Amino acid sequence: RPKYKFAFNSCHLLNVSKCELTESKDSFTITLYNPLAHAGHQYVRVPITGDHYIVRDYRNVEVPAQIVPIPEAVQRLSYRFSNATAELVFLANELPPLGYKSYFVTRSIDTLDDFVHEMSNQPARGGPAAVEPTEPMGVPAQWQSQEVTIGNKYLNVSFDSSGFLSSITVDGVTNRLRQSFVYYEGALGNNEEFRNRSSGAYIFRPNGTEKTVTETVQLKVIRGGTVQEVHQVFNEWISQVVRVYADESHVEFEWMVGPIPVADGVGKEIVSRFYTAIQSNGVFWTDSNGRDMLKRVRNHRDTWKLDLLEKISGNYYPVTARIALEDENLRLAVLNDRAQGGSSLEDGSLELMVHRRLLHDDAFGVEEPLDEKAFGKGLIARGKHWVLFGAKNAEASPTIEARERFLQNHVLLPNWLFFSDASDFKYEDWQKQYTNIYSALSLSLPLNVHLLTFEPWQDNSLLVRFEHLLEADEDPLYSKPVRFNVQDVFRQFSIEEIREMTLGANQLKSESSRLKWKPDPDYFVFDDVNKVVPNVTQRNLTASGATVHSTYRRVTRDAVEETRNVADDGYEIVLNPMQIRTFIFQLEYKP
Question: In what order do the strands lie in the sheet with 86-95?
Answer without folding.
Answer: 40-48, 86-95, 65-69, 134-135
